[in-house]
TrEMBL record, chain A:
Main location: nucleus
Record organism: Lithohypha guttulata
Pfam families in alphabetical order: Med18
Functional description taken from the UniProt entry: Component of the Mediator complex, a coactivator involved in the regulated transcription of nearly all RNA polymerase II-dependent genes. Mediator functions as a bridge to convey information from gene-specific regulatory proteins to the basal RNA polymerase II transcription machinery. Mediator is recruited to promoters by direct interactions with regulatory proteins and serves as a scaffold for the assembly of a functional preinitiation complex with RNA polymerase II and the general transcription factors.
Keywords carried by this UniProt record: Activator, Nucleus, Transcription, Transcription regulation
Family the entry assigns: Belongs to the Mediator complex subunit 18 family.
UniProt-recorded name of the protein: Mediator of RNA polymerase II transcription subunit 18
Gene3D superfamilies: Hypothetical Protein Pfu-838710-001
Highest taxon in the source lineage: Eukaryota
Compartment list: Nucleus
From TrEMBL, chain B:
InterPro entries assigned: Mediator_Med20 (IPR013921)
Record has rRNA processing as a keyword: no
Signal peptide from the UniProt entry: none
Subcellular location: Nucleus
Organism this protein belongs to: Lithohypha guttulata
Family in the record: Belongs to the Mediator complex subunit 20 family.
Assigned keywords, A-Z: Activator, Nucleus, Transcription, Transcription regulation
Keyword check for Ribonucleoprotein: no
Known function: Component of the Mediator complex, a coactivator involved in the regulated transcription of nearly all RNA polymerase II-dependent genes. Mediator functions as a bridge to convey information from gene-specific regulatory proteins to the basal RNA polymerase II transcription machinery. Mediator is recruited to promoters by direct interactions with regulatory proteins and serves as a scaffold for the assembly of a functional preinitiation complex with RNA polymerase II and the general transcription factors.
Annotated protein name in UniProt: Mediator of RNA polymerase II transcription subunit 20
Gene (UniProt): MED20
Highest rank taxon of the organism: Eukaryota
Summary of subunit composition and partner proteins: Component of the Mediator complex.
Length: 270, 238
């Protein structure tokens, strides 16, 4: 799956007004979103030094062996990524936050007995080619049951940090509009899993990552097959049309590609 | 406690499958009741570094992605740590996501994982023998069809499920209990298939599993059968 996005930033003072505008544009009430994001870092591949040392050293093996070795070398040298485990906090009751009651969503979030649906998310670095919207490969898999943090550790990913995202989501044709901001979470205590949410401070007391309270608006279209040019063009067309519609409220643009880079920097061995 | 034992038998000489022989023998000899067809898909990855020449094979880590018809809603993903195959961690994902997740591992997680094999059992058979209180599932795991044509036959997988009996086990599944169950399963298989000249010398993996209906209907099981998934992963790990 590929994701095409444009981003804009909204000062906290304009938030309510933009909510009204988006509700009008999409003809729907916003869907409150509360997510916990747990970030994991891929471990560097071992054995790279073994591969580079064999060039010209041993007498040439068979052609097949040389090809296999070359293939392994390519595999070991390809990028290692950051991934996320995203927990969507399921609403306790069926009340959705309405446009007029801002902040009611946050106050009703209590961590005890809170049901969470976990999704493993892989996002590639956005493509480098010149395009109208930021385009990246995305893969999401729901993790139903099991000890996910231990599994990811064995799978090759170690825990880095976690944070929460709060916001509202709207849908307009094929585009999803996500108005959100980030709050920081304390590090998990020793021997407590990063996905354990039973003992977290109340949501409203979590410090904002950006103290000014600025929101981010992400306009995003997902396309199933990123190699089909027609789908890409259609998605880009929708995004650009939306950008023009919302021009007076918010400026939607492509972000700096490397700011969204999910690759782990390669550290040179001493 | 219900116990399941799984083993992988080698093909007959010439690479011919023995499953048809086993199935027809069972149907002739016992009053059997056929269940839903048995199928599974198993994808195995090993850690890329261990594929290098000169690496210690015993220190190899594995990741498995398994779908099977015993649990049609879930797929099981498990990773084992190097050198200690008993230390593993397993999670479930929706069964429909298994192939896209496998694709992600094969394309974007190459520094960590190297695809070793993909096996599938199609049109396997599960029958229950009420008088003995057991269910037997038989299938032929084949590698995926490649450029060479039809996939290669890896052998025949046989699973024997024994429903609850009166003997009780302790809460931990100890080594002694496992060995006892392995012997029981081996004897039961040899007894069932006496007269087919098939030898059950292969290693048998056993564990306690979820209860299963002997009349072929499936109950509404929400809890995945972790132990059964781990048995199949152990059988196919190489």
């Amino acid at each position: 799956m590929h994701e095409l996005s444009l981003y804009g930033s909204i000062p906290v003072g304009n938030h309510d007004h933009l909510l009204q505008q988006l509700a009008g544009l999409t003809a729907m009430q916003p869907q409150a979103v509360h997510e916990i994001h747990v970030v994991f870092k891929g471990r560097q591949a071992l054995g790279l030094e073994k591969v580079s040392g064999t060039v010209g050293g041993e007498s040439a093996g068979t052609q097949q062996q040389q090809q296999d070795l070359q293939r392994l070398r390519t595999m070991l040298q390809s990028g290692v990524f950051y991934v996320q485990l995203i927990g969507s906090l399921l609403p306790r009751d069926n009340k959705r936050s309405t446009v007029t009651r801002q902040g009611s969503g946050e106050n009703s979030i209590g961590w005890e007995n809170q049901e969470v649906e976990w999704t493993f998310e892989f996002k590639d670095t956005p493509e480098a080619a010149k395009q109208s919207a930021s385009t990246r490969l995305v893969s999401r898999v729901k993790f139903n049951q099991g000890d996910m943090v231990t599994f990811l550790d064995m799978f090759g990913f170690e825990y880095v940090k976690r944070y929460v995202v709060e916001g509202q989501r709207f849908y307009h044709q094929d585009t999803s509009l996500f108005l959100h901001r980030v709050r920081r979470l304390p590090a998990p205590r020793d021997n407590v899993s990063a996905t354990d949410i039973s003992d977290l401070p109340p949501w409203a007391k979590l410090p904002l990552l950006d103290a000014s309270g600025t929101y981010i608006l992400q306009a995003m279209v997902e396309i199933v097959d990123g190699n089909t040019q027609e789908l890409r063009d259609r998605a880009t067309g929708q995004l650009l049309a939306l950008r023009d519609t919302l021009k007076s409220e918010v400026t939607l643009a492509q972000p700096d590609r490397l700011a969204l880079d999910t690759r782990v920097p390669i550290t040179r061995r001493p | 406690m219900p116990i399941a034992g799984v083993c992988l038998l080698s093909p007959a000489t010439g690479g011919v499958s023995i499953s048809a022989k086993l199935i027809s023998h069972l149907s002739r000899r016992y009053p059997t009741q056929e269940h839903e067809p048995f199928h599974l898909e198993h994808r195995l990855f090993s850690d890329t570094s261990s594929q290098l020449p000169g690496s210690d094979v015993k220190q190899r880590s594995f990741t498995h992605v398994l779908n099977f018809s015993h649990d049609p809603q879930h797929a099981f993903v498990s990773s084992t740590k190097a050198g200690n195959s008993d230390k593993s961690s397993i999670v479930t994902i929706p069964a429909s996501s298994a192939s896209s997740f496998t694709g992600l591992i094969a394309t974007k997680l190459q520094p960590a994982w190297y695809g070793r094999q993909m096996l599938s059992v199609e049109n396997g058979v599960c029958v229950s023998i009420e008088e003995k209180g057991i269910v037997v599932c038989i299938g032929d795991p084949r590698t995926s069809p490649g450029s060479q044509g039809a996939g290669a036959l890896r052998g025949t997988v046989v699973e024997l499920f024994r429903r609850e009996d009166v003997t009780s086990h302790s809460n931990d599944y100890t080594q002694e209990e496992a060995e006892e169950d392995q012997d029981w399963v081996r004897d039961a298989l040899e007894d069932l298939f006496r007269g087919t000249d098939v030898a059950f010398n292969a290693k048998i993996f056993t564990d306690r599993t979820k209860p299963r209906r002997l009349d072929g209907t499936s109950g509404a099981e929400k809890e995945p059968d972790w132990n059964l998934a781990k048995l199949y992963m152990a059988v196919f790990r190489r």
